[in-house]
């Protein structure tokens, strides 16, 4: 048996004897993650597209934590802030382009616009969900430019 053939046989035997490695995270509850994602996407659509601030905010924790420096902490201050914003900007909409969940976190990739002529902003919103309530939020916001150095979109 040649050395190359021998090494091939040994390699194959080692691979067959190796334990199967799962890429899934142990203890991950995909059903709960999907429920969190559904909770956040429904909230987001009602709140930011239908501007239904009172009804949709039922899923916000009373002591909701906000990491956007322009928006106050707490459920009531959050609702009041956006109720005023939507009154001044009735054409504001946010299209969820994609979403994902991992554990208690839900990510949304969003195209926000304020009227038909607005190129808008690319937004990544991250929400933390605890016991069926949105308890915390982070976002990263980037204006959609008129010109780009490539032909890709931001979405």
Observed structural traits:
alpha+beta; 4 helices
Overview of the structural elements:
- With 155 residues, this protein is an alpha+beta fold.
- The chain has one domain: Nuclear Transport Factor 2, Chain: A (Roll).
- Helices cover 34% and strands 32% of the residues.
- The chain has four helices and five strands.
- A five-stranded mixed β-sheet has the order 1-5-4-3-2, with helices on one face.
- The longest helix has 20 residues.
- The chain is flat, with a radius of gyration of 23 Å.
- The relative contact order is 0.14.
- The model has no long low-confidence stretch (mean pLDDT 90).
Q: Could you give a short description of this structure?
A:
By secondary structure, the chain is α+β, with helices and mostly antiparallel strands. The chain is built from four helices and five strands; from the N terminus they run αααβαββββ. The radius of gyration is 23 Å and the shape is flat.
DSSP summary, beta strand count:
5
Low-confidence stretches: none
> What is the chains' assembly state?
single chain
Strand content: 25-35%
The chain-level mean pLDDT equals: 90
Give, in spatial order, the strands making up the sheet with the most strands: 1-5-4-3-2
What's the shape?
Answer: flat
Task: From the 3D structure, determine the CATH topology.
Answer: Nuclear Transport Factor 2, Chain: A
Helix fraction by DSSP (H/I, runs of at least 4): 25-40%
The value of Rg in angstroms is 23 Å
Quickly count the domains: 1
| Biggest sheet overview | 5 strands, mixed
CATH class category: Alpha Beta
Give the termini distance in whole angstroms. 56 Å
Backbone structural class: alpha+beta
Quickly give the CATH architecture: Roll
Number of helices: 4
Return the string of H and E elements.
HHHEHEEEE
């Amino acid at each position: 048996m040649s050395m190359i053939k021998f090494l091939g046989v040994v390699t194959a035997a080692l691979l067959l004897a190796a334990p199967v490695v799962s890429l899934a995270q142990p203890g991950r509850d995909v059903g709960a993650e999907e429920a969190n994602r559904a909770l956040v996407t429904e909230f987001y659509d009602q709140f930011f597209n239908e501007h239904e601030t009172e009804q949709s905010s039922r899923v916000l924790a009373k002591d909701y934590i906000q990491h956007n420096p322009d928006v106050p902490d707490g459920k009531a201050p959050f609702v009041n802030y956006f109720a005023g914003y939507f009154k001044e900007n009735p054409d504001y909409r946010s299209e969820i382009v994609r979403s994902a969940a991992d554990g208690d976190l839900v990510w949304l990739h969003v195209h926000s616009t304020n009227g038909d002529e607005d190129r808008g902003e690319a937004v990544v919103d991250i929400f933390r969900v605890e016991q069926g309530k949105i308890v915390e939020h982070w976002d990263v916001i980037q204006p959609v430019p008129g010109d780009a150095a490539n032909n890709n979109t931001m979405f």
